[in-house]
Amino acid sequence: MKTERIAPTISDLTRIRDLKGLKDLMHKPKATMILDHAANALELLKFGTLEYGEVKSFMNAVEDVLFSLKAIRGKSASYTKDEITVDVQDEYYADIDKDGHITNHKARVRIFCLAFLSESPIIEVGINDKRRRGKEIVGRLDIIPIKTEEWIRIEDYELHGTIDKEVFEETKVVKLNPLDAVRYELLRFRVRPRINIELPLQIRVQMSIVERHIEVRIEVMVTGYYSNSRRAAQTPCEDIQIRFPIPEDWVYLFRVEKRFKYGAVHSSKRKAGKIKGLERLLTAFAQGILPPSLIEVSTGLAKYEQAFHAVVWRIDQLPERNEGAYKTHLMVINIDLAPHDKMPEQLDKYVHVEYAMANSTVSRAQVRSIAISNGADEPADKWVRHLAKYEYTIEMEFTDKVKPQSEDIMAPLKPVLPAAEEPDSNAPKAAPEDGSENSSSDSD
After folding, report:
1. Where are the domains positioned within the chain?
2. 201-355+396-407: which CATH topology?
3. Verdict on whether the full-model pTM lies above 0.90
4. Nearest to 123 by CA among 33, 53, 186, 64
5. Which segment, 49-58, 238-247, 374-383, 403-412, is predicted with the most confidence on average?
6. What homologous superfamily does CATH list for 82-196+358-389?
7. Which pLDDT score is estimated for 9?
8. Model confidence over 204-243: pLDDT tens digits?
9. Which residue ranges run through the membrane (predicted)?
10. Residue 40's beta-bridge partner residues?
């Protein structure tokens, strides 16, 4: 019978050490691998407020100041693999009336740059500006694949300090010496959006007031839209935020008391649609037996948020997975005011909407070429990303009628009561009470 040693021998330790070294050698990154750069941020100050508008205006002011500051590239670094990323961000704002017509809209384009380049190269970025049409002279390796051949008109442009303004005014080429490993804004300009533009997200808001009962209906539908992606139908609207303002006197209706604090009443999810089949009919009756919820949504989550002074309906993305366009989603708010609740003299007439779409544009702005003159043997990796941010201000439609409950199962059904029998005209009338005739004759 052969015995084995419990403690490892010197040969065992040597074999384990060699295997560990071989494992480290196998996992060593190669020069051709895609490297991930992590942002190194230093937190200096913290700001807080209960007003979303104040935070937004403060952020815009800080961005304007940073854009106007003078910045110079410092000591050049050396990278294993050169890389440059250009982000094209569109910002669109629209005012929409209660009929769904656009009364006013505007768009702005902001271009950001993030470069990891050795030494101190000069970069030329070409944009699809109409004044540059037919004057492009770029190398084959500098061309960026695009999905459209449209040209745009740039208006009210502003340049960062690193861009050569004289060259841009003459040739409309963005020529600069980029900052090292810093994401900053290169260029911002205005464009004129089309008049007959079809918005990716169609929203309609209706508010009905019947005595002390208030019902708010917000319908959301995704339409066809433009996209740079190869699979256009797979580009959803993301981070959707729909804000319905709530008067200060009604806030307590949307708050709930918890163990140590007050919280917000969350929405209940109910699917919208017409009643078809026995199962859905039974479901509708079950919903009719239960009391209606304060907030009901077909997708996402809605609750009151103090920072906005509104009920915020948040949806991760639309269309949802395995869902096509032109499908309507619904949010219903049912408010029953008590006798002591006050009705404001004037209600806010507008609903605010914000969302974003990746790989899409509003202005049709495109980066056609990126040329780097650093004399490197291996060309740098070039990335171009698009992001469109939308913001609406939608006017509400006020009515004094509630939508019929038979059209939608989100409103609870009420049991049908038999109609009151009408008195028959041929039936004999009841005899008058004693003394009624005598009193009438005495009066005569």
Report:
1. 82-196+358-389, 201-355+396-407
2. Immunoglobulin-like (2.60.40)
3. no
4. 186
5. 238-247
6. Mu homology domain, subdomain B (2.60.40.1170)
7. 62
8. 999 998 888 889 999 998 886 545 555 555 678 899 999 9
9. none
10. none
